[in-house]
Amino acid sequence: MNITMIESEQEYETAKITISRIEQGLTLPYDPDLDPRIEAKERGDAEDLLRILSLRVQGYELLREGRAETLPLYSFEELPDAFIFARLALGLSQHEFAARLGLEECDLREYEESRYANVTFGCLSSFARRLGLLVSHDVIVPLPLPEGIESAILAIKLTADR
Questions:
Q1: CB 88 within 8 A of CB 63
Q2: By three-state DSSP, how is residue 64 classified?
Q3: Helix (H) and strand (E) counts for the chain?
Q4: What is the distance, to the nearest Å, from the Cα of residue 42 to the centroid of all Cα atoms in its chain?
Q5: CA distance 7 to 145
Q6: Does residue 151 belong to any structural domain of this protein?
């Protein structure tokens, strides 16, 4: 599950209001005129959204309070999140962060909105150096399994399931 981070106070406040409304909605009695299966599905969807929003709010609060210093990345596509994470963890506004990177605030805003889509790798590397960001993560190269290993794994699994 990809849980995007909250990137601003406005998003944070909106998420908190939404959480409150979902919690209120979950306390309402079941609607006798609604098919119970539909009601259960809607309630389950609301509970899932509540969990996701709560995780986003908790993550933002950790960043804002300076209690988070690492961001796990699970794909190369998540690299832009590291710069947004750094800005939040450092407690900097977009204006202050842009100044640290040698950018105009409007350029930084555009970069964040596009998730740094049009920024070259060289620029990203330069930004990381200016911020003192350290990257420490494994690169996993998927190697083909030796011939016959899949059937051996299946046989072991079937034996273990007995």
A1: yes
A2: helix
A3: 7, 0
A4: 24
A5: 41
A6: no
Tell me phi and psi for residue 69, to 5 degrees: -130, -5
Task: Say whether pLDDT at 1 is over 50.
Answer: no
User: Is the domain of 2 the same as that of 63?
Assistant: yes
- Give the chain's domain count: 2
- Per-residue pLDDT of 24-69, as tens digits, reads 999 988 888 888 888 889 989 999 999 989 988 988 888 788 777 7
In this structure, which amino acid lies at residue 2?
Answer: N
Please indicate, yes or no, if residue 148 is contained in any of the structural domains.
no
Kindly state whether residues 46 and 75 are assigned to the same domain: no
Determine phi and psi for 120, rounding to 5 degrees.
-70, 160
Considering the domain architecture, whether residues 42 and 86 belong to the same structural domain is answered as no
Q: Name the token pair of 115.
A: 């998730």
Domain that holds residue 7: 1-68
